[in-house]
Amino acid sequence: MVDYSEVYIYSDQPTTCPKCSARSKVVLNLSHTNDKTEVHLCPDNDCNYEFVMQYDEDFDNASLL
Ligand SMILES: [Zn+2]
Question: Which pLDDT tens digit goes with each residue over 32-65?
Fold first, then answer.
């Protein structure tokens, strides 16, 4: 099950697992939809944490200033 109670915002860094910091992989890419989200899965067998990344345009714009 994906825990949608916690949503993480994209940064310019490679996406990593919030629990163990392993480089996560995209299992569901919805970045082209209105939701602008990606579901990521931690590849670590001991962790296997699934989490949601969300693209925040306001955050992105602010970082360009
Ligand atoms: Zn992990």
Answer: 888 889 999 999 999 999 999 987 766 556 555 5
pTM: 0.74
Dist. CA 26 → ligand 1 center (Å): 13
- Adjacent-strand bridge partners of 24: none
What count of residues does the chain have? 65
Full residue range of the structural domain in which residue 58 is found: 32-65
Q: How many domains does the chain have?
A: 1
Beta bridge mates, 20? none
How remote is the CA of residue 64 from the centroid of ligand 1, in Å? 30
Position 51 in a domain: yes
Q: Which pLDDT value is given to residue 16?
A: 94
